Amino acid sequence: MRSALVIPRPLQILVTSGSEATLALLRTMLQGFSVTMVSSAEETGHYLQAYNAHGPPLDFVILDDQSETHADNLARQLHASGLVPFAETKIIHLYTPTTSSSGQAVFADSTMLGVVKMTKPPRLTRLLQALANLKNLTHLVAPHHPSEITKAIEDLANAQRTLHGNVLIAEGKFS
Question: What are phi and psi of 84, to 5 degrees?
């Protein structure tokens, strides 16, 4: 899947995260693509303002931020710029699912065109599948037949969590 995503050119990806650990993880996961890492919204703004209007398209922005508003504002900024390299830029919004003190989910379903939500921590296969889907390379995405363990893990990931709840993260290869 990765090799098909670099044809005819490597994907141009901007990663924004205040977490050095997340930046390091995504740097490893996105090897082979043209990736720029920034650690703040301010740096993201400077990068986008300085982006070459005649340069290669910016394929994705991966935004690690708890604020749904920040993701939506970034999408608006990209599309309002009118720059050709941003015409088809998609945003992958990484977030940790939480609930408010009333038990209501903090994040609703994505309302902004071009913003795809993904829970943290990102998984390599899931991230590459999302990139392929968003680039309309659906022939690369194998049909997903999850095992019972995978289903249980996904159910836990999708379950509402409280801000002070326990979280178990298990990763490995299951056959």
Answer: -60, -40
Total number of domains constituting the chain: 1
Q: Is the pTM of this model over 0.85?
A: no
Give the model confidence (pLDDT) of 31-86 as tens digits: 999 999 999 989 999 999 999 888 899 999 999 998 888 999 999 989 888 899 99
45 falls within a domain: yes
Q: Which domain holds residue 114?
A: 2-143
* pLDDT tens digit sequence for 85-114: 999 999 999 998 776 554 444 444 444 567
Give the bridge partners for 118, in sequence order.
94
Is residue 153 one of the residues assigned to a domain? no
